[in-house]
Write a structure and sequence with these properties.
By secondary structure, the chain is an alpha/beta fold. The protein contains 19 helices and 14 strands. α2 crosses α3, α13 runs antiparallel to α17 and α13 crosses α19. The longest helix is centred in the C-terminal third of the chain and has 31 residues. Bound molecules: 5'-O-[(L-methionyl)-sulphamoyl]adenosine. The site of 5'-O-[(L-methionyl)-sulphamoyl]adenosine has 19 residues, from β1, α1, α7 and β11.
Length: 525
């Protein structure tokens, strides 16, 4: 059996339509999965929905629907969006599915039996109209953060998970696995804010609402959020069920991608739940930043939400995926601006990549009637320099991809594109043509094609359509596209019979900046 790779996204709350923030997490996971496949891994990706809880129940009611009707609708919408965005997930788990609920029930009972979960009293600030508890810090001016009405101190019977019991083991685990939390500054935050002051036990049930999984041995309690939500990652693999071959094959997860707001739950509670279940811990939790707008967070009330469908429908899938992956730096927040989106489109995609492909095809048509010349090694002075540069860049890109720093990886791929464009200026093929330096001219053409082929493979996991377009327009769609084929420059063109297409179509058409910036602004909601 080959090497395996299991990657997960958070399961999203079905509170409404997904914005580009949610799309980013999912595109990131999808790209990493596809890259791992390119590198010969048997890769498996899980995504899904976190369908229980008070908020979901409230949204459903305010839309005049039952919670189940509501979540069914959002699940369909989500699947449609992921199809539009070419997300190749292997499983889509919904926490209302019996395969999930039945296992959560069992896990909870096991925790009670082991003494990990005990019954106590939950005390907090309760907002009656919202039927929700808040902690002191969540209150705004001492009032409910959702509706602004007064809150009162209330107590209710609830179950708690004994986190303290596992604290020492968790610290040992962090020490033995220094790369578990990425990027590393998040680890420092977790340590300083939660571990140092001492872990608090976690309240894991509620009695104030009923849209959730009931505690089997005490059904007036509903399992509240994290035991339900986090265990999706193993339940989807068939944990505790007869069909658990996926669990055996893929667990522990190699990479769990989460937003910075939920790193705490994944870096503290999740490992502790797994310890309590005697299961191995995931290899890495990667926390990405937020996509922000100039005026702060995206929110419907501000009318500044960018929906991925709008970008994909207007500018294409690859431009959208490219923007998200390129603009969100490893673990940091990113700022979405229509200006930047249009600039990236015009400069990176249209000028740099699009023109390189177009010019190359144009020249091969003009100078060699479309036939791609054979590779004859180093002919021009600068051939070697280009080859060396590309070889070096391939290992840099691999390193960045292996670190899951896709923004950097794309930046490094774009350096190859710029370098290849520069190679055209250096070799001046139009002069070689005039001078009838045919061998030199041939070498330039095959170097351009080969560079584009390598670029086509490097961008494949992020931008499959563009990658395919490069291969098709160069007339090499049937050529070997395996990752390993990029290490030996020119090898596939020893006695080539390949012909580029006669009339290349631009992969990206230049955008009118002013018009498109307006368009995006007008379509934020
Ligand atoms: N249901 C929980 C996760 C449970 S995982 C066992 C949840 N759902 S959520 O829908 O509120 O958020 C899902 C993910 O989207 C989180 O990782 C969150 O960080 C991410 N994002 C929400 N807004 C975002 C941006 N503006 N930008 C990037 N990601 C953002 O939390």
């Amino acid at each position: 059996m080959g090497k395996k790779f299991y990657v997960t996204t958070p399961i999203y709350y079905p509170s409404g339509k997904f914005h580009i923030g949610t799309a980013y997490t999912t595109v990131l996971a999808d790209t990493i999965k596809k890259y791992k496949q390119q590198r010969g891994y048997d890769a498996y990706m899980l995504t899904g929905l976190d369908e229980h809880g008070q908020k979901v129940q409230d949204v459903a009611i305010s839309n005049g629907k039952t919670p189940q009707e509501h979540v069914d609708e959002i699940a369909n919408q989500a699947k449609k969006l992921w199809e539009l965005m070419d997300i190749e997930y292997d499983d889509f788990i919904r926490t209302t599915e019996p395969r999930h609920c039945s296992v959560v029930e069992k896990i909870f009972e096991r925790f009670i039996k082991q003494g990990d979960i005990y019954k106590g009293e939950y005390e907090g600030w309760y907002c009656k109209p919202c039927e929700t508890y808040f902690t002191q810090t969540q209150l705004i001016d001492g009032k409910c953060p959702d509706c602004g009405r007064p809150v009162e101190k209330m107590k209710e019977e609830a179950y708690f998970f004994n986190m303290k019991k596992y604290e020492k083991r968790l610290i040992e685990f962090y020490n033995e696995n220094p790369d578990f939390i990425q990027p590393s500054h998040r680890k420092t935050e977790i340590f300083n804010n939660f571990i140092k002051p001492g872990l608090e036990d976690l309240c894991v049930t509620r009695t104030s609402f009923d849209w959730g999984i009931k505690v089997k041995s005490d059904p007036k309690h509903v399992i509240y959020v994290w035991v339900d939500a986090l265990t999706n990652y193993i339940n989807a693999l068939g944990y505790m069920s007869k069909d658990d071959y996926l669990m055996k094959k893929y667990w522990p997860a190699d990479l769990q991608i989460v937003g910075k707001d939920i790193i705490r739950f994944h870096a503290i509670y999740w490992p502790i739940f797994l310890m309590a279940l005697d299961l191995p811990l995931p290899k890495k939790i990667y926390a990405h930043g937020f996509i922000m707008m100039k005026d702060g967070k995206m929110s419907k009330s501000k009318g500044n939400v960018v929906y991925p469908e709008m970008l994909v429908e207007k500018y294409g899938l690859d431009a959208t995926r490219y923007y998200l992956l390129r603009e969100c730096n490893f673990g940091q927040d990113a700022l979405f601006t229509p200006e930047e989106f249009v600039d990236r489109y015009n400069y990176d995609l249209c000028n740099d990549l699009g023109n390189l492909l177009n010019r190359t095809i144009g020249m091969i048509n003009k100078y060699f009637k479309g036939k791609i010349p054979e590779y004859n090694g180093i002919v021009n002075d600068v051939d070697e320099e280009l080859e060396k540069y590309i070889r070096k860049q391939i290992s840099v890109v691999e390193e960045q991809m292996d670190n899951y720093d896709l923004s950097k990886a794309l930046e490094e791929i774009w350096k190859i594109i710029s370098r290849t464009n520069k190679y055209i200026d250096q070799t001046e093929p139009w002069i070689l043509f005039k001078e009838e330096s045919t061998e030199k001219l041939k070498s330039v053409m095959i170097h351009l094609v080969e560079s584009l082929r390598i670029i086509g493979i490097l961008i494949r996991s992020a931008m499959k359509n563009t990658s395919n377009e490069i291969f098709t327009q160069l007339g090499i769609e049937n050529i070997n596209k395996e990752w390993d084929s990029i290490y030996e420059f020119g090898k596939l063109f020893n006695n080539s019979e390949f012909k580029v297409i006669e009339k290349p179509t631009p992969v990206f058409n230049r955008l009118d900046s002013k018009e498109e910036i307006e368009y995006i602004k007008n379509n934020m909601k």
